[in-house]
Amino acid sequence: MTIPVSFPELPDFPWDSLAAETATARSHPDGVVDLSVGTPVDPVPEIVASALQEAWNSPGYPQTWGTPQLRTAAVDALGRRFGVDGLIPDAVLPTIGSKELVAWLPTLLGLRSGDVVAIPDLAYPTYEVGAMLAGATTVRVADDEPLPAGARLVWLNSPSNPTGRVLGVEALAARVAEARALGAVVASDECYLGLPGPGSEPVSVLDPRVHGGSLESLLAVHSLSKTSQLAGYRAAFVAGDPTLVAGLLAVRKHAGMIVPRPVQEAMTAALSDDAHVAETRQRYDARRAVLRPALEKVGLRVDHSEAGLYLWATAGKPCRETLGWLAELGILVAPGEFYGPAGSEHVRVALTASDERIEAAATRCASRL
Ligand SMILES: Cc1ncc(COP(=O)(O)O)c(C=O)c1O
Q: Ligand 1 within 6 A of 176 CB?
């Protein structure tokens, strides 16, 4: 008997297509340098781990909304770290990592077939997945192209995954004004905002210079995965327009989208401390300073890549060729085509490996000079 269910049609999971290159890179005698996925390898900050441990005895259901302490810590952190102003603790909502929110936001906002979601032309794949789950249509938009008429939701992502590109105050403010004129919600994925490179100044959509004094129609999505090494905890939050956040809270309460209480305590500790974020930033700056020139010397051009966790590199050839060439050196990276057709000649090189592995990658590149 065929069971009559029809799961949503989604793209093939792209990482499965890297099996051959992964095998090649893993066979390197000095071991693989895996720079294909942006997963942190440095330890969880001690103050954060202790907060999690102290909250182990949490038998009751946690609040979907998060504790008041967590929401206040989020508002304070955004103020201290990014100059965010005018945000109230009521307009903060913890999420089970940010991928979960990215995947479900169109559905939670009530978007459906015929609705348009605008995403960057080179984008984190889950924006498109989220539109598909809601049955909506995705339109890719380059930074210098106008938003599509009828857009209901506009995703922004600065610093960008995969390109590391930063949108300045003017560019962000222009996008916000354009989206507001269309009546669209702006969701700004600020996963990498806490990791500016030297000389770059990423800004939040909740910065008053961007929003012009009103948070109306704006949501900022913040993940603690990369800035606090908490990818394994699933720790993120969304904040912004109080009416939108209240609407999301109402649906998420019904749907059981709740962050575990020990994780809420860990998030509160992480958001109350800036020292570990500064350390994280220094680590990635040092890794960028080793890897970028090594890739450039061996003939790759590195575009953008001024902030965040990735180097966006091209040899001016199809990305799979560059991927294969690097795999021969035991270095595994992600093909740019994962992020959109405009990435067909680039590879994305993550800085998320130990200093020793990053040095090994640089040495292997130098051996080809
Ligand atoms: C742009 C962007 N948004 C969201 C996420 C999801 O992060 P998490 O679910 O760990 O918060 C990632 C992860 O790599 C990302 O690159």
A: no
From the CA of 39, give the closest atom in ligand 1.
Answer: 14
pLDDT in tens, 28-55: 999 999 999 999 999 999 999 999 999 9
70-105 confidence digits (pLDDT tens):
999 999 999 999 999 999 999 999 999 999 999 999
CA 171, chain centre distance (Å) = 19
Q: How far is the CA of 293 from the centre of ligand 1 (A)?
A: 26
Q: Is 124 in the pocket of ligand 1 (CB under 6 A)?
A: yes
Q: Is 138 in the pocket of ligand 1 (CB under 6 A)?
A: no
Asked if 315 contacts 300 with a C-beta cutoff of 8 angstroms, the reply is yes
Under a CB-based contact definition with an 8 Å cutoff, are residues 125 and 265 in contact?
no
Q: Are 309 and 284 in contact (CB under 8 A)?
A: yes
Point out the ligand 1 atom lying closest to the alpha carbon of residue 99: 9
Q: Under 8 Å CB-to-CB from 26, ≥6 apart: which residues?
A: 32, 330
Tallying the residues shown for the chain, one arrives at 369
Kind and range of the H or E run holding 47 = helix 46-54
Say whether pTM exceeds 0.90.
yes
Distance CA 200, CA 58 (A): 41
Residue of 36, 102, 122 best suited for mutating to test ligand 1, as the one with most atoms within 8 Å of CB: 102
